[in-house]
Amino acid sequence: MGIQVTVDLVIFSVQESALKVWLVKRDNRPFKGHLAIPERVINKNESLDQAALRELKEETRARQVYLEQLYSFGDRKRDPRGRVVTVAYYALLPGDQAKRVSPNGSGAAWRSVDALPPLVFDQKRIVNYAVERLRTKLEYTTAGFQLLPRKFTLSELQAVYETILGKKLDKRNFRKKMDLLGVLKPLREWRRTGRKPARLYMFKGKKFERLKDKGILFPF
Amino acid sequence: MGIQVTVDLVIFSVQESALKVWLVKRDNRPFKGHLAIPERVINKNESLDQAALRELKEETRARQVYLEQLYSFGDRKRDPRGRVVTVAYYALLPGDQAKRVSPNGSGAAWRSVDALPPLVFDQKRIVNYAVERLRTKLEYTTAGFQLLPRKFTLSELQAVYETILGKKLDKRNFRKKMDLLGVLKPLREWRRTGRKPARLYMFKGKKFERLKDKGILFPF
To answer: Which of A50, A183, B79, B218 is least surrounded, with the fewest CB atoms within 10 Å of its CB?
Structure first.
């Protein structure tokens, strides 16, 4: 048999102050019943992107999810089935959509990247690679925003950044940077959370894209 | 037949103030005799990285070349032979080494990315993607340095940046930024080029790596 090509999918979300990954229980050999990130053998009639999108849709039923090709893994002995090259993708699912992705009794679940169970093949390496990419991307792209619902408070925004970077950020400093970038659109809506209502914001996508093109960094 | 996996290689160098790519004349079908970037069908006993390295070595015989996986391309109809997924890599070859890579009468040549001939398959897209990646990388990595010989003048350094970015940079500004980063090690050697001898520099690799980890951007 020749070389098989698969697509592996690292689906991220931020929930309860943790960066989480969607794991499923494998229903095929090898490692049937073990936890894994979703995987799919691509068929001859779909492109890599199409295969990743279909897998993502099957798992999440979500619309408008950020999806990006991550890296291809092709070590000789990564898969006991034979020679399998996998093209890994990662997706960012806003927290409110992620809550609706339910295990359906299949044993699938959101698991924190800080406490991952053993995964099959070289999938731990793939997930780690995706976490690394996400952290880097946070500094010069809109990646952080993709994990938020459409409307969010500044505290929620900061919490997403803190969760992914794994460290506390100074609140005043964080807000000053966001102000400087001018990517947030304040709404005439407030949400009652703690003692006082918090203003809701939306994100000016085009403005951020323009900033990005100019090579502005976003370091925390 | 199933899906085939190939490795495509975009080999860059900067020569005569132009960003160049190494093109070969295909000696196999399809498109025999046409210009193409080097391509190799991976065999079952080599990893993706090994396949890319072997192809690179065959083409350049160079040691110590920067090599990085770029992206995987797998549209359904990209290759008339059938379903072929290619994992593209790009390599950066210092100018002095590039001059030694000779066509050997095979029709291979360094061609400027600004004046590429038609390429086979979707290779034009692959080359464009690599140029884009290289430009972006210039801003936050040591990519630019990989195209220089071990010892270089500040003018040569600036010329590499200008060539890849496709625009003139202010000399004083450029040198100030390099000073600020502190990644250059001045040598007690000079090279006679124009009217007066120009000092030679080497590059402090570790220092730059540390800076990079802190998320320092390098925008021009």
So the answer is: A50
